[in-house]
Write the structure tokens for this entry.
Amino acid sequence: MLAASASAYSAPKTVLVVGDSLSAEYGLTRGAGWVALLEQKLKAEKIDARIVNASISGETTSGGRARLPALLTAHKPQIVVIELGANDGLRGLPVASAEANLRQMVTLSQKQDAKVMLIGMRMPPNYGRAYTERFFGMYGALSKDLKAPLVPFMLEGVADKPALFQADRLHPNAQAHPIILKNIWPTFSSLIRQQ
């Protein structure tokens, strides 16, 4: 039994995170963001994984799609975490384009034998109900179509608490990131344990 569990984790896994400022530690001390906290959690759980955080502040789904092929070639990840869409939404870009970009990213990663996890986002209500519902629904549709596990809303338990945001009211502060990790961990841990 012990030998079986040891062999399950014997080969280190590479996890590629492709995101925007929410994953790139914007406005935070280095090491305070959820991706760095995930790395610590994996060590604590004795899961041998290397995390490549390829997140860039301001990144859109089209930027992520353009960068992904080179990232897949360079890092050969077993797991790709895609946290994109917020900047498309904030700019009011068409949901159909964001969905097409994300679909391409998931498909390309899966073709390289990587498992993909999507992290969803909601837009503030001032973008209008039709847009916000279509935007949020896009993640669920992609997850179902492409069999990619989904964290529906990374800012669950954060978005409605002004004290958990930086002065710009857009970016979560350091106190928020452990909550973000708590939202992401159940889906991520079951995915990495399947590998």
User: Anything to note?
Assistant: The longest strand covers residues 13-19. The two ends are 18 Å apart (CA to CA). The beta strands are 13-19, 49-53, 79-83, 115-119, 150-151. The CA atoms of residues 88 and 144 lie 21 Å apart.
